[in-house]
Amino acid sequence: MICRMPRTSPRPAAEPASAPDDARYLALAARDARFDGRFFTGVTSTGIYCRPVCGVRTPRRENCRFYDLAAQAEAAGFRPCLRCRPELAPRQLVWSTQDAPAILAREAVRLLESGTLQDPAHGAGLQALAARLGVSDRHLRRVFEASLGVSPLQYLQTRRLLAAKQLLTDTDLPVTQVALASGFGSVRRFNAAFQGHYGLNPTQLRQRGAARAPGATLRLAYRPPLDVPALLGFFGQRCMPGVEEVLVTDALQALRRTVRWPSAAGGAAPHAGWIDVRFDRARPLVWLQVSESLYPVLPQVMARVRGMLDLDADPEAIDAVLGAAFPGTAGLRVPGAFDGFELAVRAVLGQQISVAAARTLAARLADRFGEPVATPWEALTRLFPSPATLAAAEGDALGALGIVRQRQAAIVALARAVDAGRLALHAGADVAATTAALCALPGIGDWTAQYIAMRALRWPDAFPAGDVAVHAALGLKGTARPAVAAAAAADGWRPWRSYAVVRAWHAGPAASSGVGKLPHQ
């Protein structure tokens, strides 16, 4: 049975068929998960739009309209399917290094998705977004609409509504809390937007959904293939006792860790708790459970987990560029980080030493400076130290943990820059400015800055040119000026050089050393 929401707008007019849309129809008919999130199908006979993996009976070709974004489908008058739930689809971003309008639109999407801008649904917020991108708000709207077919505000509104829809369906949070967590300024605005777009009020949608277990267990989809053992193996090698735990058994593939979400502007206390991530062995799906203390920031936590596991990657597009150089590695992802500051500190600790030694130092740091936190597991007891805590750390206290003087200075300088707001280490940060600011800090060079850009900033084209594993993959080991030669040789890997680095690590002996030895630092 097809799940429908009440029709609230006229049926879109018929559109001529095209060859690309015919190909999309074949993917829809096959329910091919590789195309999940790469397009959405509006069905004129029902007035709803679906993911390519929807399990309902395949609609007739003449009734299908295809859209790149959920926001485009909603702008055309379609409502989301209650069965396949478009809010679960992995996100699709088109990466380009040549098309200037596409780059601008992509960066605007990155910032909107990151949640780092203060209420961009208002005029002042849109002006702030445009200023952050170095253009006028009028030019931003024009380019955004030309590239994506919807305005920035329409895109953001759809993202917020779909986030709210998932929270209503998968959690037992009160509607008021769902409204605020999804980014709506008031329950009244939330109810009006939900009713206007979907023809239901939030309570009606929740009543139509399946029975829910108490708490919050959320589903996060991805496009296969994904090499889960390799991804969890990477995290497992770097697993910090007391803060994180990786479990791989015949029945379970999971990652658990303690997390802190920083306080919002205005002095609210940070949200501290835990997350439990489990990979579904039968479907391209991740189950995310979070502590109750993180409910007010659930959409932000979900987005951060998606980045940490690189769930929005498009393996087909990436492998089209890298497959010839690294055959058989299409399932590898770029491991991210839940907390960019933590990742940066651990990158500094890992300079010139092995992964095992860096993990030991990080555990000592967390045990000495981290705060205790309650979790359901005995193995997870502490939060990683906050920037404010490490900014005030004394050199003697850091030295007592076995951290050498040069690393002490780098960690304190890094913590002070982040704590003062001069440095942001998340997916919405400006990559060029952030890497330049990192390199200006004592004890941090280009390799470490690129490594942070790759994992914390989620930049797909980061490239630590001095990496010895990359030199080996390119046959440059032992040559003169290998970093310069590596940068030139890897130009054909753009815009996916971060993925090339991960594949190079996976391919050779250097894979076991991770951040490894940095010959230039």
Give an overview of the whole structure.
The protein has 521 residues and is α+β, with helices and mostly antiparallel strands. It is built from 22 helices and nine strands. It has a five-stranded antiparallel beta sheet. The longest helix has 19 residues. It is globular and about 70 Å long. The N and C termini lie far apart (62 Å).
List the helices and strands and how they pair.
Blueprint: H1 19-30, E1 40-43, E2 48-50, E3 64-67, H2 70-75, E4 79-80, H3 100-114, H4 123-133, H5 137-148, H6 152-170, H7 175-181, H8 187-198, H9 202-208, E5 217-221, H10 228-237, E6 244-248, E7 253-261, E8 271-279, E9 285-290, H11 298-309, H12 315-322, H13 340-349, H14 355-369, H15 387-391, H16 395-399, H17 405-419, H18 431-439, H19 446-455, H20 468-473, H21 482-489, H22 497-507
Parallel strand pairs: 2-4
Antiparallel strand pairs: 1-2, 1-3, 5-9, 6-7, 7-8, 8-9
Helix pairs in contact: 3-5, 3-6, 4-5, 13-14, 13-17, 13-19, 18-19
